Amino acid sequence: MKSRLGLWIILAVALAYVAYLGSHWLPLGISDQELSGSASRVWDIKQQITQHHLLPWWTPWYMSGSSYGLNHARGFYLIPWILFSMITDLMTAGKLTALTAIFVSAIAMYFCARHFMKNEWAAVLAALAFMLHPEQIIRAAGHEHTTIVLFFPFIPLLWLTLSRALEKNTFRDTFLCALVAVLAWWTDNKQAFINFLFLFAYALYWLWPRRKQWQPTARTCGLLAALGLALGAWVLAPGFVESGDVKLFVGDPLEGWQKNYAFKSLLGLVDRDGSITSNATNTVQEHIRANGGGVSSQAEYDQVMRVVSLGADSPEKYMGLALLLVVGVTVLWNKRRVDRRAFWFFVASLLASVLFATGLNSVWTANWLTWDALSSQHVSGAVLLWLLIAVAFLVFFYRQKLTTTQKKVTAGVALAIFLFLPGFKILVGLPYFKDIRAPFVFYDSPAIFWGAILVGFFVTDVLVGEKWRAHVPKIVAGLGLLMLLDYWPYQKPVKDSGVPAHTVENLQATYRSLQPDKDWVKTWTFTGRYFHLLGPMWGGKPQVYEAFYDWMAPIGIGALKQQAFGSWENHRAFLNLLSARYVVFDKTDPGNIQQKGAQQILAAYRQSFPVFIENDDFVVFRNDTARPYVTAYARACLYAGDVRKSAALALALSAKNWPLVQAKEPSVSEVPNATAQKYEKTYGEDGSAFPPVTEAATVALGDVQLTRENSQVVRIQLTAPLSCVAVIAESYYPFWRAEVDGQPAEVLQVSCGLMGVELPAGNHTITLRYQPPRVYALAGGVSLATLILGMGFVVFGGKRSAR
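Predicted structure:
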């Protein structure tokens, strides 16, 4: 085969494939997945850059206000998205970003596979397998996880650059590897972290046979780490500084997430289009209906929940029947091993990713629990078939490959570790690993690479006989077509948005109806769908709540949100406290339709608030008791302790018009008496949950004028008739600074999640400025200097060895 002919083949096939996907996906309307949420942030950041010529570090639009620090720490998606938005609308620009990533991933995989296997057709087959894997479409058009789609091209690039750095020990290759690693981290730090673990294992694998000459490799790895930290300082700094200031999820405790988002069985590897798990779920539901809608025991309930939760195993984790077949043939019937150690390292890595993905259970326990649950529900036929296939493979493997005692012992130990070691449970016991919430992340993106690279070995290790060589192009083309047909059902997301056009039209009309109200108030949306996050673009009103979880919400707002449904009184207090004048209820959200609790909440809304506007899909209620952006109080209460434990008390007090100011001291006993005397009452973590105080009245402010110069500067002019605490319905965050009449003033954390300042009587100008830490600029300077110096060294002295 002519050199680089495979590259031209991949370029042509990838372009045709992406063009085909785009011809269906680009014309589609808005879905109910996460593209809208990302587009809303791109809109906000883009308008701040174009209108105010600054990169915003704060947004007032989401979760009642939140920091962009962690967003920018994984903000590579902004660059292609904003560039594409210059020629098209935001939603189409997001789709073009994802399609471009799929195209580039095929090219990156081609170069990576060619490096490892030194064979054009092997590189072509591996690139096709990587590009066609259903995870690409599912992440792009199904769940619309843009950062994960953009991360896929970096996986083969990481393996390629690390391998070259270890092999050559030159500054040029080490610098390039560090640069790719930083870009990968900037794209999606969670995916990067997991892949870095496997890359670290590869470095050990590389060093082991060369351990007597470990010094050059150690120097290269040390230089790689130093360059990575220096180049990535500007994205690492916000992550380390702000990780304790936000509440990422409401899914506490962790164990619930770790159980749900883990392999329940290996069916997920072979369950084409999720058909087996769907049939199992339907059978269980029919069984429950036949029994009058209930279960007879706790054991049966556990089994039912086990079967129903199988839906979390597919289709995302589907490896592909064609791909697994080719890998199985490569394992069993190779004629040679072009790189025996590399092949078995990748096999071991694939097995390790599955082992960790089973979460708190071992592979054996997870599969046994699922087998027991399926057997009890009489849906075990498909499971039995795949069990027989697995046994047959092991028998063939034993007969074909385990020809010596040493091989048998090694294989037995490896199989025992794979089946019985609770790898994830051990891993999360280590420092910095305990917060991993979804075990399947170990399989998520790494397994795409393992599968693709192992398929490439089919060409080099199996199709090496004289009778096959002339037919290699046809066999590669046939296998590519077979994988395409196998993965064909996963194209559904690019052909069907799942949302009727009239629903999107009604959503847009709903939010545009809020435009005439010019007050600084917010909207609270009850929905599990993401497209409502386009509301600020259409209605000009900030959102209090993002769908599903409080993603990167300031920790105080996240704590308040967790208490928002503790009772109807708490919910009313929450809406009032956060200035949510409008409540938008999504009537056609499938989750809201099916949940009895959601319908009860809708009924409570109808009884409590007047309807502002209603159409077939949405109803907007007007909450006239919502507080204005600035509310003043003559007296306040004090709280000493962990602010996250103050949310319930803050809502109870707020219902009686009492603000709760967070003390700097960690406990009541450490609050100075002079400080305590300023407040009506001082509470601690172990104090009464309900305040023994009478209802208070707010202070009537005069001539209130509000100006937001940009997302990070707020000016408030007002007249206070007496000394008071002015509470501002903007999320408290430690980087806000305040001035009152030009003099620095303390920013108080009020009612768990809001800001406040103390004011004497009279006319005042309050200026609030969001100032991210100077260390961000310092870290950016370090990264920029390292980049310039590194590139200069590569250009002018790149041939110098790292030795």
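Summary: The two ends are 36 Å apart (CA to CA).
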